[in-house]
Amino acid sequence: MSGNETSPLLRAATDDEDSLHNQVDATESSPLLSSNTATPRYDGDQDGPDRAERSSITTRLRNLLSPSSSEKKSMRWASGVAIALLSGAIIAIVILAFILPDMVQEYAQQAAVIEPTNLSLDSITPTGVRARIQANFHLDGSRVENEHVRRLGKAATWVAHQLGTEETEVVVYLPEYDNVLLGSAVIPPLVINLRDGDTTKFDFVAEIKPGNLDGVRTIANEWLDGRLKSLRLQGKADLSLRSGLIPLANKIPAVPKYNITRLNVADGPINGSMVADVSLSAFNTYPVQLDIPELAFDILLPGCAPDDLILVADAVTSEVRVEPQSEVHVDATGVIRELPESLTSACPDSSSSPLDMLLKSFMDGDPATLFVRGSKRPDADTPKWVAELLSSVTLPVPFPGRSLDGLIRNFSLTDVHFTMPDPFAEPGDPDADPKVSGTILVTAGVPSQMNFGINVTNVRARADVLYKTQKMGELNLREWQHANSTRVESKNGDEATLRIESRIEDAPLNVTDSDVFSDVLQALLFGDKAVKLDIDAAVDIEVVTGLGTLVVKDVPAQGKIPVKPLPKGSLGSIAPKVNTLKVLDTTPNTMTLQAIVNVTNPTSYTAHIPYANIHILHNDTTIGDVSVENLDVVNEVNDHVVITATWNPSMGGEKGQQIGRDLISQYLSGYNTTLTVKAHRKSIPGQPVLCEALSRFNATFSTPRLGGLPGDEPGEGESHFIRDATFHLLSSTATFTLVSPLEHNTVYLDFVNATALYNHSEPVGRILYDLPFAAPPGRSRTPRLPVNWSVGSVGYDAVLGALGGKLRLDAFAHINVRLGNWRESLWYRGRGIGASVKL
User: Fold this and answer.
1) With contact defined as beta carbons under 8 Å apart, do 275 and 265 qualify?
2) Torsional sign, CA 13, 18, 23, 28
3) Please, where are the H alpha helices in 66-96?
4) Domains in the chain: how many in total?
5) Residue 742 belongs to what domain range?
6) Cα dihedral angle (788, 789, 793, 798), rounded to 10 degrees?
7) Angstrom distance (rounded) from CA 364 to CA 555
8) pLDDT per residue over 625-676, tens digit each?
9) Rg for the chain, CA atoms, rounded
10) Mind listing the pLDDT tens digit for each residue in 303-357?
11) Could you give the CA distance from residue 458 to residue 477 in angstroms, rounded to a whole number?
């Protein structure tokens, strides 16, 4: 094309159509079609020798552009083709200039496959590292989802075939983090195959320098927190290639899993310090090879606040050799010099310290999170940039927990002493529960990793008491109980054990299930084997170590408390022996009595009873109750036990009153009588569950006999109210020796209707007397009572025959007695009463 921009787009043509387009000059301001008269000449002369030729060309061009009617149809097709070609050229220019580069870039981003085969650390420099990088690179068009992008990309890279670069410095930015500088690397000359499927093998050493450490720290922390799923890098280089976004990886690798292969904690060389020796192993799944020098780290524990970390130890790692696709072993030594106060002090609004929460997580078997941070006091050989980077990154390290189930091998309770509830305690008060005292013996296993001095000084516990897997109650040691411990070294490779002994005093025992407690009582009363109660406890232990005093809370403990059943036949030995009986108060129908008795405790357990009340029954009918206060039950014989009893047969209604009369009558007559004691719902105030269980059982005892009095012959009527009689024949009277069961009260007999019998059936005589007379405490003589003899009877003859001597008579009487305000009509039947006969 020759001409200038002021030439017309179309001018007169020659006869040679092939030269037409080579001779057209136009200007942008010229008309698209011009006449021959308007077209300027190049020589400025319109009448030259070529005028005719130019006129002919113009005419022919006009004829082409303004065809005859016969040619108009074909000329329209030519115009359409020209316009289509022109439009296609414009579109192609747009695709090649604008769309194709973006599509090729998209193709490269999706098709690029980089397979690292080895990454090894050549050396650490003061400014960075020298790393040897080995990798395979190829383009895989099948990874491109868009079909058009895939086709254009394959075509473009097939044409380009290879891309060569010179040594250049690549600077990498993080576009999603305000384009912070990640680092830079010097890359040697490379030749890259771009055709689909061709593989390029890289093997070069690059100088890598860290960029903005704040940016590195941000990325590292997000990765450690598990929040970094993918990462985009923007690389810029001094190449004739436009820079673009290059994906580093579709998936960011996670922190490798590791195993703790050795852990040993021992007392340190400095008093008050401890040393921890740890070995870790992890499998390196990546093609990375490097040597890590010795590094120093700070070990931190979480504090009360989420972002509060407490420095507790310094640690140093050994040199580590990392090989591709192989196991990596790391040895570390940590030194704990003291426990900071912030670690052992309770957090605000909490009763637990950070150490308590860490130990609880550990003992629950859950990973306890520690934090590792590069030391701010690194080794002198550590490059400054490495120390600065490590000290700015904090790595959370899950420390595998260890369930302490089974740590306590044995838990037992001996020398048991029970204390019944305080009747005046408010509900919910610890004094409202029964209490248990005894000696706790615990055998605990000492983990082999714990090779330091340890001494248990105090214990406390919360325990469930179970019988045959069912919960009976709760034992709660809220207060610290003094303890001492003895370490027993291991034998035959077993773990060492710690023998802990503690005396507990008044630990509340809350019975929560009356049915289970009833089963226990039944087994104790009627069984012949020891009853085994299971203990499921959470124990707090105060431990003194080289670092100071620690409190380990909620250590799980299981054990058994064997409870011996009552010896066979022992219920009979419980029967009390009345030493003193005293009436304290009376009403017309009731008496309040106080007795001092001796009771034998057949068990090996002792107890203190602040207050208890039980019902007295006879023939399954309640006739009174018995109360004790501040009673200390000791082993074997319990002397001088003071009990208070209320005689009130009306508690059993009319039937009870009759049963009460008969019971006293039988007792005074020397019959073998029994009394039954049974707990009721209010036996122990504030303990309805315990009382419910106790009320299902009763105990029946023989009624205590009246003791003999001075002057009695052995076995002579010791159980009779009437000990002997004297008959006076001439005066037809009789006197009797009475023995009252009361030592402090006088009983009055207001009416007597008695008959004496010989040989159990032959009448001797009858006494009818309605004047009151007294029966004072102990032995007494009645006044002379008139006798109406049965003259002529066999009985009377027997009396006459015994004049001046003795004989045995029976007696049956109805008597009215009075004691204070209490009155009752009784009967009396005596057998074998020794009777003297006098004139």
Assistant:
1) yes
2) positive
3) 72-94
4) 6
5) 722-838
6) 140
7) 9
8) 999 888 888 877 888 889 999 999 999 999 999 999 999 999 888 888 888 9
9) 57
10) 888 778 888 888 888 888 878 888 888 888 888 877 788 888 888 888 788 887 7
11) 12
> Looking at the structure, do residues 666 and 754 belong to the same domain, yes or no?
no
Cα dihedral: 692, 696, 700, 704 (round 10): 0
Helices (H) and strands (E) in the chain, counts: 13, 45
**Helices 384-391 & 213-224 angle (0-180, nearest 10):** 40
The verdict on 395 and 415 lying in the same domain is no
Output the 3-class SS for 690-718: HHHHHCCCEEEEECCCCCCCCCCCCCCCC
For residue 311, the domain's CATH number is 2.60.40
> Range with the lowest mean pLDDT among 242-251, 673-682, 783-792?
242-251
Torsion of CA 514, 520, 523, 525, to 10 degrees: -80
Burial 621-632, CB ≥16 within 10 A → b, else e: bbbbbbbbeebe
Residue 262: both structure tokens together: 């050795």
For the whole prediction, is pTM greater than 0.70? no
Residue 636 identity: E
Decide if pLDDT at 53 tops 90.
no
Q: Are residue 361 and residue 433 in the same domain, yes or no?
A: no
Q: Are 127 and 389 in contact (CB under 8 A)?
A: no
In the numeric block, which tokens belong to residue 517? 């407690």
Q: Quick check: helix, strand or coil at residue 802?
A: coil
Report d(CA 190, CA 200) in Å as an integer: 10
CA distance 719 to 775: 16
> How would you classify residue 264: left for phi > 0, otherwise alpha for psi between -120 and 50, otherwise beta?
beta
Q: Mean pLDDT, to the nearest integer, of 231-258?
A: 51
Query: 387: which 2 tokens?
Result: 């120390």
Classify burial at 151, counting beta carbons within 10 Å of its beta carbon; exposed 0-12, middle 13-18, buried 19 or more: middle
Q: In which residue are the tokens 């009382």 written?
A: 691
Gap between the Cα atoms of 37 and 46, Å rounded: 9
Percent of residues, the chain, with pLDDT higher than 90: 14
Q: Where are the alpha helices (DSSP H) in 766-832?
A: 794-801
322 backbone dihedrals φ, ψ, rounded to 5°: -105, 120
Cross-strand pairs, 595: 581, 643
- The DSSP secondary structure of 1-34, one letter per residue, reads --S-TEE-SS----S-GGGTGGG--EETTS-SS-
559 and 575: one domain? no
What pLDDT sits at residue 823? 94
CA distance 388 to 214: 10
Q: Do residues 426 and 541 share a domain?
A: yes
The C-alpha atoms of residue 343 and residue 354 are separated, in whole angstroms, by: 5
Task: Write the single-letter amino acid at 462.
Answer: R
Structure tokens at 276: 């921890």
- Residue 760 and residue 830 in contact, taking contact as beta carbons nearer than 8 Å: no
- Whether residues 287 and 210 fall in one domain: no
Same domain, 601 and 681: yes
692 Cβ neighbours under 8 A, 6+ residues apart: 514, 681
H/E element holding 116? strand 112-124
- For residues 523 and 493, membership in a common domain is answered with yes
Is residue 485 one of the residues assigned to a domain?
Answer: yes
Contacts of 727 (CB under 8 A, 6+ apart): 733, 734, 765, 787, 799, 835, 836, 837, 838
